[in-house]
Amino acid sequence: MDNKVLRCGLIGCGKIARIHTPNILATPEVQIVATCCIVEAASKDYAAKFGAEYHTTDVDRVLKDPEIDAVIICTRQDSHLRLAIEAASAGKHIFIEKPLTDTIEEGKRLQEAIHKSGVKLMSGWWFKYSPITKRLREVIPHPYYSTFMCRLPWTEQYIVDDEKGPLLYWGLLGTAGYNLHWLWHVMRSQPTEVYAMGYGGKATNTSSILIRFENGSFGNSVFTDMGLGGINPTKWYVEVQGGPKSAAIHGFTKLAFEGTTEPGIPENRYHDGFDKHWKLLADMCLNGKASTMDAWEASIPTIFTEKALESMRTGKSVAVDFRKEMWLPNGKLPESVAKYGDV
Ligand SMILES: NC(=O)c1ccc[n+]([C@@H]2O[C@H](COP(=O)([O-])OP(=O)(O)OC[C@H]3O[C@@H](n4cnc5c(N)ncnc54)[C@H](O)[C@@H]3O)[C@@H](O)[C@H]2O)c1
After folding, report:
1. In this model, does residue 342 exceed pLDDT 90?
2. How many domains does the chain have?
3. For the chain, which terminal residue's Cβ has fewer other Cβ atoms within 10 angstroms, N or C?
4. CATH no. for residue 328?
């Protein structure tokens, strides 16, 4: 492998690929040499944007190409498991958009495939790169409780429940997944129990998901796609209580503390880490650095979502133990999970 430039195939040329394009182009360590999309015109268009050597609609051509070191998978989640397992068996390193998989069992299959193939995987859950998250964890390292609220505008197509099947995952896993990972990362304790309620007594996107952690603390994810507005019309609002100190996060643009003279962050315009993905990917694949979101940590939103759905359907709290919900290399939680995402 050329140790200066990571030669990549881009798989899936849709909306998120468009968002990633300028950042990939701004990273000299990463070169897109092939593009692949089931829509040929999109594959061709992205090949031109990147100056790629070829474009194709055939994933196998990319996976069998010995000149390709890694794939950047930007398809929707219904193809993530299959493409990631195929890429791992072909010996390609992987960047894959979130969510990693739909179910806990699929996550375990992928973790085993990644471990046994020896390739590295990085996924796209990025709230931990927000300066607000980092500052909050410095000032309140062990909170007692936290409420993370995410609200999306009202759109009728998103009033989804069990009868509408997989759509549930688009909101609950795809978006509230950020809430769930963030709570675990900030509470710095492993979960023991999930109790959740959906709208109308059903399993719905709109939900309150309560997580109890081993150290006795708890976190609450509130997620709704039934409206955004009122006196606090921000998508995200978070409160964290840590004994005498507390914090409030408004829109991930403001962080304010109470009960301490430590400064918060009055104005923040950055949170997604999108500009950093690609250098981190190159460092991981070329220089042996640890993944900043490996296949174990990236499965956490799926684990919480599956447990929350079970709780919404049964009306009962559900036990959760990451040691059982992950495929464990050497029988132990990997460092990424044991250290609450600090890698
Ligand atoms: N990290 C973030 O903040 C963020 C933001 C938006 C979307 N996403 C994630 O990105 C993923 C893609 O979302 P999107 O909005 O870009 O979807 P999209 O539908 O706009 O794009 C997906 C693309 O993949 C192509 N595709 C589908 N199956 C394929 C296959 N088997 N082989 C090759 N190409 C295939 C489609 O033709 C399409 O061009 C989702 O998993 C979503 O959750 C992440």
Report:
1. yes
2. 2
3. N
4. 3.30.360.10
Write the pLDDT tens digit of every residue in 93-109: 999 999 999 999 999 99
Which of 72, 75, 77, 173 gets mutated to test ligand 1 (max ligand atoms within 8 A of its CB)? 75
Confidence label for 167 from pLDDT (cuts 50, 70 and 90) = low
**131-141 exposure pattern, b = at least 16 Cβ within 10 A, e = fewer:** ebbebbbebbe
H/E run at residue 88: helix 80-89
In a domain, residue 42? The reply is yes
Half-sphere exposure of residue 294, counting CA atoms within 13 Å on the CB side? 30
Predicted local distance difference test score (pLDDT) of residue 202: 85
- Is the domain of 289 the same as that of 300? no
Query: Do 196 and 57 belong together in one domain?
Result: no
Mean pLDDT for 317-335 is: 96
Distance set, CA 322 to CA 12, 260, 296, 326 (Å): 31, 34, 9, 6
Distance CA 267, CA 132 (A): 10
Distance from residue 169's CA to the centre of ligand 1 (Å): 14
Token readout for 222 is 């509130």
Mutation choice for ligand 1 from 76, 95, 167, 293, CB with most ligand atoms inside 8 A? 76
Residue 1 placed within a domain: no
Query: What is the reported pLDDT for 99?
Result: 94
> Are residues 300 and 153 located together in one domain of the fold?
yes
Whether residue 249 is contained in a domain is answered as yes
Nearest-angstrom CA–CA distance, 3 and 256: 43
CB-facing half-sphere around the CA of 49: CA atoms within 13 A: 20
pLDDT above 60 for 157 = no
Q: Which residues of 146-181 are buried (b: 16+ CB within 10 A; e: fewer)?
A: bbbbbbbeeeeebbbbeeeeeebbbbbbbbbbbbbb
Give residue-wise pLDDT tens across range 252-268: 999 999 999 999 999 99
The pTM (predicted TM-score) of the whole model is 0.96
**Do 103 and 151 reside in the same domain of the chain?**
no
